[in-house]
Design goal:
single chain; alpha/beta; seven-stranded mixed sheet
Length: 349
């Protein structure tokens, strides 16, 4: 991330690929995601490598803390490489349960990691990038941070355990972010529980040096309660996103007097109706689940089901392959999505 650290030498974590780099400085193990051209989008190989590295460092008495950062100047991680997932689907050789199961097991490993795990959430942090950072013990955002779970725009839903946090955000802020995929800044990420503290982007090398010197750091190193723009919108957000009926939520947004609410309604109307309905059900269910692991178990059921739906292939095509931004969803409106279809995504439970 253009950290200005001079001659720090990272090496490939495996002989097979340089997509994950590591280095050890004193008691600090450092991980750098290394696919800067794709904003470090996660591949299956990267998930396997990260799991191997973190498992080894968890057991290594010489490693007292771990940091995670992204190569390049654009961000930590833009999420899973969904274009590759789509290609595998079209070729008929995607093991969806295997892919998502491995990713969610990595998220659980981070959530339960026995040592301090500091994530540098600078720049773009979306989807699977949130799974690698929000479950850490010290989650650092900056003035450059842009966080989002944009999955409803590609026929999926906010997964990687993010709904554990979003379902517990103040009022309906988490529901707004989950359903629309709206990008927010670092202060808002703290407000909804996805991050801990705001630091200047240039402060990262000094923080790394302190960790390498054996210091124990907490959120007091930055601003723990910066002014969050989204919090000032809670009036219409809490009012419009109340309840369990996605069609009624859309209607409330479109009829609201606030321009920001009506704009959110237009965004929501363009998302996959099935994904929006499933995401609303998922965040409501996540609020009643008592652990990250329980939410990840729900995520696995839902992701495996949704990725087999035509909206996923079509959404990725429209947004990331052809980039025409004109997806043709299976349902033309939220009112067409039945409760039975939604329940089927959760295994009928």
């Amino acid at each position: 991330m253009g950290t200005g650290e001079g001659t720090v030498t990272f090496t490939a974590a495996t002989n097979e690929s340089d997509e994950v780099l590591v280095t050890v400085a004193g008691p600090l193990g450092r991980i750098r995601l290394n696919r800067p051209r794709t904003i470090n989008a996660l591949t299956p190989g990267m998930i396997t490598t990260l799991t191997t590295v973190l498992t080894a460092w968890a057991a290594d008495e010489a490693i007292a803390a771990v940091t995670l950062e992204g190569a390049g100047d654009r961000g930590l991680c833009s999420g899973a490489d969904v274009r590759a997932i789509r290609a595998c689907l079209l070729e008929g050789n995607l093991d969806a349960a295997g892919f998502f199961g491995a990713e969610y097991a990595l998220n659980a490993l981070i959530s339960d990691f026995p040592k301090p795990y500091a994530a540098f959430m600078d720049g773009i942090v979306m989807g699977g990038g949130i799974g690698l950072s929000a479950h850490g013990s010290l989650r650092l955002v900056t003035e450059r941070t842009r966080v989002a779970m944009p999955e409803t725009g590609i026929g999926l839903f906010p997964d990687v355990g993010a709904l554990f946090f979003l379902s517990r955000a103040p009022g309906e802020l988490g529901t707004h972010l989950a359903l629309t995929g709206t990008q927010v800044d670092g202060a808002d990420a703290i407000a909804v529980g996805l991050a801990d503290t705001l630091i200047p982007s240039g402060a990262w090398p000094a923080i790394v040096a302190r960790l390498a010197a054996g210091e124990s750091l907490d959120p007091s190193i930055g601003q723990r309660s910066p002014t969050a723009p989204l919090a000032s919108e809670r009036g219409w957000i809490d009012r419009c996103y109340a309840g369990d009926d996605p069609a009624r939520i859309l209607e409330a947004l479109r009829e609201a007097p606030e321009p920001a609410a009506r704009a959110a309604g237009e965004v929501l109307a363009g998302r996959s109706p099935l994904s929006v309905a499933v995401s609303l059900a998922a965040i409501r269910r996540a609020a009643a689940l008592d652990s990250v692991e329980a939410v990840l178990a729900q995520d696995l059921r839902v992701a495996t089901a949704l990725v087999a739906e035509p909206d996923f292939v079509e959404g990725v095509r429209a947004v990331l392959v052809d980039k025409d931004q004109q997806p043709h969803w299976r349902h033309t409106a939220l009112t067409e999505v039945s409760g039975g279809e939604v329940a089927a995504m959760f295994g009928g439970a």
